[in-house]
Amino acid sequence: MAEEKTFPMTLEGKKKLEEELEDLKTNKRAEVIKRIKIARSFGDLSENSEYESAKDEQSFVEGRIKEIDNMLNHAEIIDNENVDADEVSVGKSVTFQEEDDDPETYQIVGAAEADPLNGKISNESPIAKGLVGHKKGEKVTVTTPGGEMTVTIIDVQ
Questions:
Q1: 33 and 61 belong to one structural domain
Q2: Is the pLDDT of residue 25 over 60?
Q3: CA 100, CA 97: separation in Å to the nearest integer?
Q4: One domain for residues 93 and 56
Q5: Of 77, 105, 134, which residue is a domain's last?
Q6: Per the database record, which ranges form the Transcription elongation factor GreA/GreB N-terminal domain (predicted)?
Q7: How far apart are CA 139 and CA 150, in angstroms?
Q8: CATH code, domain carrying 14
Q9: CB of 97 within 8 A of CB of 151?
Q10: Which phi and psi angles does 41 have, rounded to 5°?
Q11: In this predicted model, what pLDDT tens digit does every residue of 37-77 receive, in sequence order?
Q12: Residues facing 78 on adjacent strands
């Protein structure tokens, strides 16, 4: 039997998913059902774009509910208790610098809570994979889709 995929995440990330799930189940579902009822009242469903749109949204909402349920059921909360304070690991923030570039800081999180625009990168991303396990002060060569880059780990928190 295939092994179930686990979803590493921080406690904060798990809490956000639980809040999103609650909102989807209590608010979004009801809104979509209401839209479907209103669209049905317009008559002929075969040419009713409002109805099609509402049904598409319903599919999306139900799919997202299943996806979050699965992630929460297979969540693996990150525990950094046995990791050195200056070692890069999931759940920690790492500041690194490539040669003459400005330093960059990211928190390494599970894929379920990745949000690169807000400084949270997935533990499955090439940069995170290259940095995890290394320590503050180390020079690390990271292989990315754009090629290799050598960075110095400046800080780990």
A1: yes
A2: yes
A3: 8
A4: no
A5: 77
A6: 8-77
A7: 7
A8: 1.10.287.180
A9: yes
A10: -70, -15
A11: 998 888 777 778 889 999 999 999 999 999 999 999 998 88
A12: none
State the Cα–Cα distance between residues 59 and 12, nearest whole angstrom: 27
Q: CA 130 to CA 102: how far, in whole Å?
A: 19
For the CA atoms of the chain, what is the radius of gyration? 21
Q: Which domain holds residue 24?
A: 7-77
Residue 19 binned pLDDT confidence (cut-offs 50, 70, 90): very high
Pairing of strands 75-77, 7-9: parallel
- Any domain includes 82: no
Q: What is the pTM of this model?
A: 0.69
pLDDT of residue 2: 52
Counting the structural domains of the chain, the total is 2
Question: Is residue 59 in a domain?
Answer: yes
